[in-house]
């Protein structure tokens, strides 16, 4: 039985693809920038409110936790609640929290504003993919997916530039103006997004709570090294697994974890996020400590990679629409591997090498995540899209936070070594991780090839 929210009777199921996807891309840029910008403002915020490093880190850690849980929640709710309702609700939360944050003069108010921002911002990337999957045919879906993924890369590149400049010349309060722009997009999306008929459905609140506690516990362990948080998180995840196997309408269908193709593609996407987020965590430090650049200047070094990725999004999308996902799934992981190896060789020698290699990484990352998301959306059934894509988003965001935490631990462990040697060692480690993406892609393509061969033999 299909319980997915559907277009209202009498409404066209088609959408204004070009306009809506462009607006979604712009909104994704704002959301991803919001994630990155505050990292650069933490020292000034900590000084203004006289915070410890642990307290100030909650501005980022708390945001990450709420964003991760809210992303899968919005995607799951889209199975029976209209996307337009969920999307405008998310943008309202994001915009209202931006206004609250702009006028905040106390740390608690600032933290509350950031947490509400995260809850609203999480609606954008997940629902964008669900919308594209639901309303754009397979033969045109690749181009739209490419816009969303390259917009994410552009936001990652713009975040340090815009965040560093605003913090340096205006102040951290003005960072909230950027995401406050989403308030003007609410009536636009309300008009353009398709009207859907709400369907009967139930929300597995217990499953959502257990998953939230589990991921929060693990993330807190990665940032605070408190073992009891890991124990609580692991116990909650175990209870979550037992819950979804017994619930009539579980928060996440257990069948997803048994789907080899889904798990292989998800692993491929996770590895790509680990490489990209670790690099974006390391590069500003390398540029500051080895080359003496300011945050804004560091952002300008990273920015060209994001721009090139955005400019190539149309070509990437057309390639997928014409030739399928196989070509990029086969070759994009090699770009990640090459970029990691080149960073290990040249990151401590030449600033222009850093700029050029990040272009390679950014293009490889956008190409791979676009093809993986498009392939996943085509493999999932209509009833699995919300939970499947939401779980994929959650795993990506979690893997990004995990990679940053592990990279930080590695830097601390090598604090007695010369910085250049420590950075080089980490990049060699990332090269091994990138090699895993090549292995996952080859295994998945073999599975697909075997499936095609079996079908041919039956004919």
Describe the fold and architecture.
Helices cover 81% and strands 1% of the residues. The protein has 459 residues and is mainly α. The protein has two domains: 14-203 and 251-446, Growth Hormone, Chain: A (Up-down Bundle), CATH 1.20.1250.20; 204-250. A two-stranded antiparallel ribbon has the order 1-2. Helix 3 (83-102) runs antiparallel to helix 4 (107-121). The model is unreliable at 8-12 (pLDDT under 50).
Please give the structural blueprint.
Elements: E1 6-7, H1 17-49, H2 53-77, H3 83-102, H4 107-121, H5 123-135, H6 138-169, H7 175-180, H8 186-192, E2 196-197, H9 205-224, H10 227-246, H11 255-258, H12 260-289, H13 295-311, H14 313-323, H15 326-346, H16 351-379, H17 385-413, H18 419-458
Strand order of the largest sheet: 1-2
**Ranges with pLDDT <50 over ≥5 residues?**
8-12
The average pLDDT score comes to 84
Cα distance, first to last residue? 31 Å
| Class from secondary-structure proportions | mainly alpha
Number of helices: 18
Shape descriptor reads globular
- The radius of gyration is 21 Å
| Count of β-strands | 2
Query: What's the structural domain tally?
Result: 2
Give the CATH class of the largest domain.
Mainly Alpha
Fraction of residues in helices?
over 70%
Q: What is the percentage of strand-forming residues? A: under 5%
Here the CATH topology of the largest domain equals Growth Hormone, Chain: A
Q: Judging by the overall fold, what is the CATH architecture of the largest domain?
A: Up-down Bundle
CATH superfamily of the largest domain: MFS general substrate transporter like domains
Give, in order, the helices and strands: EHHHHHHHHEHHHHHHHHHH
Largest sheet: 2 strands, antiparallel
């Amino acid at each position: 039985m299909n319980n997915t929210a559907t277009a209202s009777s009498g409404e066209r199921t088609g959408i204004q693809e070009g306009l809506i996807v462009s607006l979604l891309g712009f909104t994704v840029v704002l959301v991803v920038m919001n994630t990155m910008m505050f990292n650069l403002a933490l020292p000034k915020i900590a000084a203004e409110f006289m915070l410890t490093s642990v307290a100030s880190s909650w501005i980022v850690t708390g945001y990450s936790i709420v964003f991760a849980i809210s992303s899968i929640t919005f995607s799951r709710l889209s199975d029976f609640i209209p996307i337009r309702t969920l999307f405008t609700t998310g943008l309202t939360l994001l915009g209202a929290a931006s206004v609250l944050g702009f006028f905040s003069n106390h740390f608690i108010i600032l933290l509350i504003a950031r947490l509400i921002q995260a809850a609203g911002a999480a609606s954008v990337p997940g629902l964008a993919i669900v919308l594209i999957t639901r309303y754009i045919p397979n033969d045109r879906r690749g181009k739209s997916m490419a816009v969303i993924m390259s917009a994410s890369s552009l936001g990652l590149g713009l975040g340090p530039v815009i965040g560093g400049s605003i913090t340096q010349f205006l102040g951290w309060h003005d960072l909230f103006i950027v995401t406050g722009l989403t308030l003007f997009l609410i009536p636009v999306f309300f008009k353009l997004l398709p009207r859907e008929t709400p369907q009967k459905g139930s929300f597995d609140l217990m499953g959502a709570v257990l998953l939230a506690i589990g991921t929060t516990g693990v993330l807190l362990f990665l940032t605070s090294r408190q073992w009891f948080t890991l124990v609580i998180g692991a116990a909650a995840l175990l209870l979550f697994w037992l819950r979804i196997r017994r619930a009539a309408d579980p928060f996440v269908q257990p069948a997803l974890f048994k789907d080899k193709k889904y798990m292989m593609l998800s692993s491929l996407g996770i590895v790509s996020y680990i490489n990209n987020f670790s690099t974006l965590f390391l590069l500003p430090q390398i540029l500051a400590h080895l080359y003496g650049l300011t945050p804004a200047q560091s952002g300008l070094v990273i920015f060209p990679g994001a721009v090139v990725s955005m400019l190539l999004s149309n070509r990437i999308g057309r390639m997928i629409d014409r030739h399928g996902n196989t070509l990029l799934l086969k070759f994009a992981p090699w770009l990640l591997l090459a970029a990691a190896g080149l960073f290990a060789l040249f990151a401590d020698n030449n600033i222009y090498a850093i700029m050029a290699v990040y272009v390679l990484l950014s293009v490889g990352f956008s190409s791979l995540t676009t093809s993986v998301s498009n392939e996943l959306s085509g493999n999932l059934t209509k009833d699995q899209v919300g939970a499947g894509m939401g779980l994929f988003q959650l795993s990506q965001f979690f893997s990004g936070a995990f990679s940053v935490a592990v990279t930080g631990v590695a830097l601390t462990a090598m604090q007695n070594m010369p910085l250049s040697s420590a950075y080089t060692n980490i990049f060699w480690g990332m090269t091994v991780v990138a090699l895993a993406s090549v292995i996952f892609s080859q295994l998945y393509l073999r599975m697909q090839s075997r499936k095609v061969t079996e079908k041919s033999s039956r004919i």
